[in-house]
Write a structure and sequence with these properties.
The complex is a heterodimer of chains A (111) and B (111).
Chain A (H helix, E strand, L loop, with lengths): L3 E4 L2 E4 L5 E7 L5 E7 L5 E9 L2 E4 L6 E3 L9 E3 L8 E8 L6 E2 L3 E5 L1
Parallel strand pairs in A: 2-11
Antiparallel strand pairs in A: 1-3, 3-8, 4-5, 4-9, 5-6, 7-8, 9-10, 9-11
Chain B lengths: L3 E4 L2 E5 L4 E7 L6 E7 L6 E7 L4 E4 L2 E6 L4 E6 L8 E7 L7 E2 L3 E6 L1
Parallel strand pairs in B: 2-11
Antiparallel strand pairs in B: 1-3, 3-8, 4-5, 4-9, 6-7, 7-8, 9-10, 9-11
The chains are: A mainly beta (111), B mainly beta (111).
Chain lengths: 111, 111
Amino acid sequence: NAGVTQTPKFQVLKTGQSMTLQCAQDMNHEYMSWYRQDPGMGLRLIHYSVGAGITDQGEVPNGYNVSRSTTEDFPLRLLSAAPSQTSVYFCASRNWSDREFFGPGTRLTVL
Amino acid sequence: GENVEQHPSTLSVQEGDSAVIKCTYSDSASNYFPWYKQELGKRPQLIIDIRSNVGEKKDQRIAVTLNKTAKHFSLHITETQPEDSAVYFCAASPGNEKLTFGTGTRLTIIP
Protein backbone atom coordinates (compact mmCIF):
# COMPACT_ATOMS: atom_id res chain seq x y z
CA ASN A 1 0.00 0.00 0.00
CA ALA A 2 1.21 3.49 -0.83
CA GLY A 3 -0.92 4.94 1.99
CA VAL A 4 -1.75 8.62 1.51
CA THR A 5 0.01 10.36 -1.37
CA GLN A 6 0.13 14.06 -2.18
CA THR A 7 1.33 16.02 -5.19
CA PRO A 8 3.14 18.28 -5.68
CA LYS A 9 5.65 18.33 -2.81
CA PHE A 10 6.54 21.97 -3.40
CA GLN A 11 4.75 24.76 -5.26
CA VAL A 12 5.30 28.47 -5.75
CA LEU A 13 2.37 30.58 -6.94
CA LYS A 14 1.81 34.22 -7.69
CA THR A 15 -1.01 36.08 -6.02
CA GLY A 16 -4.25 35.46 -7.88
CA GLN A 17 -3.24 32.19 -9.48
CA SER A 18 -5.28 29.06 -8.94
CA MET A 19 -4.13 25.50 -8.48
CA THR A 20 -5.17 22.08 -7.25
CA LEU A 21 -3.37 20.04 -4.61
CA GLN A 22 -3.85 16.36 -5.23
CA CYS A 23 -4.45 13.73 -2.54
CA ALA A 24 -5.08 10.02 -2.94
CA GLN A 25 -5.31 7.04 -0.59
CA ASP A 26 -5.41 3.33 -1.29
CA MET A 27 -6.64 2.10 2.09
CA ASN A 28 -10.36 2.35 1.26
CA HIS A 29 -10.84 4.93 4.02
CA GLU A 30 -14.16 6.72 4.09
CA TYR A 31 -12.95 9.78 5.97
CA MET A 32 -10.52 12.23 4.37
CA SER A 33 -9.44 15.70 5.41
CA TRP A 34 -7.19 18.62 4.54
CA TYR A 35 -5.17 20.54 7.12
CA ARG A 36 -2.87 23.50 6.92
CA GLN A 37 0.07 23.97 9.23
CA ASP A 38 1.68 27.37 9.64
CA PRO A 39 5.12 27.81 11.23
CA GLY A 40 5.07 27.07 14.93
CA MET A 41 1.38 26.31 14.87
CA GLY A 42 -0.81 23.29 15.02
CA LEU A 43 -2.95 21.63 12.39
CA ARG A 44 -6.04 23.51 11.32
CA LEU A 45 -8.80 21.69 9.47
CA ILE A 46 -9.75 23.22 6.10
CA HIS A 47 -12.30 20.77 4.68
CA TYR A 48 -13.22 17.17 5.26
CA SER A 49 -15.26 14.40 3.66
CA VAL A 50 -17.08 11.48 5.25
CA GLY A 51 -17.48 9.61 1.98
CA ALA A 52 -17.72 9.98 -1.79
CA GLY A 53 -20.01 12.84 -2.74
CA ILE A 54 -20.03 14.35 0.77
CA THR A 55 -17.86 17.26 1.91
CA ASP A 56 -18.02 19.77 4.73
CA GLN A 57 -16.16 22.82 5.98
CA GLY A 58 -13.62 22.76 8.74
CA GLU A 59 -12.13 25.57 10.81
CA VAL A 60 -10.52 27.61 7.99
CA PRO A 61 -12.39 26.93 4.69
CA ASN A 62 -12.30 30.37 3.07
CA GLY A 63 -10.42 30.46 -0.23
CA TYR A 64 -10.47 26.69 -0.71
CA ASN A 65 -12.79 24.25 -2.48
CA VAL A 66 -12.91 20.46 -2.36
CA SER A 67 -14.75 17.65 -4.07
CA ARG A 68 -14.92 13.89 -3.46
CA SER A 69 -16.00 12.06 -6.58
CA THR A 70 -14.34 8.79 -5.56
CA THR A 71 -13.34 7.16 -2.28
CA GLU A 72 -9.66 7.37 -3.24
CA ASP A 73 -9.24 11.01 -4.26
CA PHE A 74 -9.77 14.28 -2.40
CA PRO A 75 -8.31 17.29 -4.27
CA LEU A 76 -8.02 20.73 -2.70
CA ARG A 77 -8.45 23.75 -4.96
CA LEU A 78 -7.10 27.21 -4.27
CA LEU A 79 -9.37 29.58 -6.15
CA SER A 80 -7.25 32.76 -6.14
CA ALA A 81 -4.03 32.34 -4.19
CA ALA A 82 -3.11 34.90 -1.53
CA PRO A 83 0.12 35.29 0.50
CA SER A 84 -1.88 34.30 3.61
CA GLN A 85 -2.25 30.84 2.08
CA THR A 86 1.49 30.23 2.27
CA SER A 87 1.65 27.12 4.41
CA VAL A 88 2.27 23.39 4.52
CA TYR A 89 -0.79 21.40 3.52
CA PHE A 90 -1.44 17.89 4.79
CA CYS A 91 -4.04 15.48 3.51
CA ALA A 92 -5.15 12.69 5.83
CA SER A 93 -7.47 9.70 5.81
CA ARG A 94 -8.89 7.24 8.32
CA ASN A 95 -11.63 4.81 9.07
CA TRP A 96 -14.15 5.59 11.74
CA SER A 97 -12.82 5.82 15.28
CA ASP A 98 -9.38 4.88 14.08
CA ARG A 99 -6.00 6.47 13.65
CA GLU A 100 -5.54 9.19 11.05
CA PHE A 101 -2.86 8.64 8.39
CA PHE A 102 -1.18 11.73 7.01
CA GLY A 103 0.29 12.30 3.59
CA PRO A 104 3.83 13.72 3.19
CA GLY A 105 2.60 17.29 2.78
CA THR A 106 2.75 20.03 0.14
CA ARG A 107 4.79 23.12 0.89
CA LEU A 108 3.09 26.08 -0.80
CA THR A 109 4.51 29.58 -1.17
CA VAL A 110 2.38 32.41 -2.54
CA LEU A 111 4.31 35.48 -3.66
CA GLY B 1 -17.47 22.25 18.71
CA GLU B 2 -14.52 20.61 20.40
CA ASN B 3 -11.69 22.75 21.81
CA VAL B 4 -8.35 21.20 22.78
CA GLU B 5 -5.75 23.06 24.83
CA GLN B 6 -2.20 21.76 25.13
CA HIS B 7 0.56 22.68 27.61
CA PRO B 8 3.38 23.47 27.71
CA SER B 9 4.18 24.90 24.29
CA THR B 10 7.89 24.15 24.78
CA LEU B 11 9.61 21.67 27.05
CA SER B 12 13.30 20.96 27.60
CA VAL B 13 14.28 17.80 29.42
CA GLN B 14 17.63 16.29 30.34
CA GLU B 15 18.32 13.03 28.54
CA GLY B 16 17.15 10.13 30.68
CA ASP B 17 14.56 12.18 32.55
CA SER B 18 10.79 12.01 32.00
CA ALA B 19 8.62 14.39 30.00
CA VAL B 20 4.92 15.08 30.53
CA ILE B 21 2.60 16.94 28.15
CA LYS B 22 -0.96 17.75 29.15
CA CYS B 23 -4.14 18.40 27.17
CA THR B 24 -7.67 19.37 28.10
CA TYR B 25 -10.77 19.02 25.96
CA SER B 26 -14.21 20.59 26.11
CA ASP B 27 -16.64 18.15 24.48
CA SER B 28 -17.76 15.44 26.89
CA ALA B 29 -18.79 13.34 23.86
CA SER B 30 -15.14 12.95 22.78
CA ASN B 31 -14.02 9.35 23.15
CA TYR B 32 -10.86 9.02 21.06
CA PHE B 33 -7.58 10.70 22.02
CA PRO B 34 -4.51 10.20 19.81
CA TRP B 35 -1.03 11.62 20.20
CA TYR B 36 1.12 12.47 17.18
CA LYS B 37 4.85 13.11 16.88
CA GLN B 38 6.13 15.38 14.14
CA GLU B 39 9.82 15.60 13.33
CA LEU B 40 11.17 18.60 11.47
CA GLY B 41 9.98 18.65 7.87
CA LYS B 42 8.03 15.41 8.25
CA ARG B 43 4.39 14.44 8.49
CA PRO B 44 2.68 13.82 11.88
CA GLN B 45 2.88 10.17 12.92
CA LEU B 46 0.66 8.48 15.49
CA ILE B 47 2.64 7.30 18.53
CA ILE B 48 -0.15 6.22 20.87
CA ASP B 49 -3.89 6.61 21.30
CA ILE B 50 -6.47 5.94 23.98
CA ARG B 51 -10.21 5.48 24.00
CA SER B 52 -12.56 6.62 26.72
CA ASN B 53 -13.21 3.12 28.04
CA VAL B 54 -9.69 2.90 29.51
CA GLY B 55 -7.79 5.16 31.87
CA GLU B 56 -4.21 4.38 30.87
CA LYS B 57 -2.28 2.81 28.04
CA LYS B 58 1.43 2.04 27.76
CA ASP B 59 3.75 1.25 24.90
CA GLN B 60 7.35 0.77 26.02
CA ARG B 61 8.59 4.23 27.16
CA ILE B 62 5.37 6.02 26.22
CA ALA B 63 2.16 6.14 28.22
CA VAL B 64 -1.07 8.09 28.02
CA THR B 65 -3.50 8.68 30.87
CA LEU B 66 -7.09 9.87 30.58
CA ASN B 67 -9.30 11.50 33.20
CA LYS B 68 -12.79 11.73 31.72
CA THR B 69 -14.24 13.51 34.73
CA ALA B 70 -11.74 16.34 34.52
CA LYS B 71 -11.60 16.15 30.70
CA HIS B 72 -7.86 15.95 30.48
CA PHE B 73 -5.31 13.50 29.15
CA SER B 74 -1.53 13.41 29.33
CA LEU B 75 1.43 11.95 27.46
CA HIS B 76 4.30 10.56 29.53
CA ILE B 77 7.69 9.74 28.02
CA THR B 78 10.16 8.03 30.33
CA GLU B 79 13.93 7.60 29.92
CA THR B 80 13.98 10.26 27.22
CA GLN B 81 16.44 9.95 24.35
CA PRO B 82 17.71 12.48 21.78
CA GLU B 83 15.44 10.96 19.12
CA ASP B 84 12.43 11.95 21.22
CA SER B 85 13.09 15.59 20.27
CA ALA B 86 10.13 16.65 18.10
CA VAL B 87 6.81 18.46 18.20
CA TYR B 88 4.01 16.50 19.85
CA PHE B 89 0.30 17.06 19.18
CA CYS B 90 -2.67 15.79 21.12
CA ALA B 91 -6.11 15.51 19.56
CA ALA B 92 -9.67 14.60 20.49
CA SER B 93 -12.67 13.30 18.57
CA PRO B 94 -16.21 12.21 19.38
CA GLY B 95 -15.64 9.00 17.48
CA ASN B 96 -17.17 9.29 14.05
CA GLU B 97 -16.25 12.94 13.62
CA LYS B 98 -13.31 15.12 12.83
CA LEU B 99 -10.22 15.34 14.99
CA THR B 100 -9.47 18.58 16.80
CA PHE B 101 -5.77 19.12 17.46
CA GLY B 102 -3.95 20.93 20.22
CA THR B 103 -1.40 23.59 19.28
CA GLY B 104 1.61 21.35 19.88
CA THR B 105 4.53 21.01 22.30
CA ARG B 106 8.11 21.34 21.11
CA LEU B 107 10.11 18.84 23.15
CA THR B 108 13.89 19.21 23.26
CA ILE B 109 16.03 16.52 24.86
CA ILE B 110 19.29 17.93 26.23
CA PRO B 111 22.20 15.44 25.94
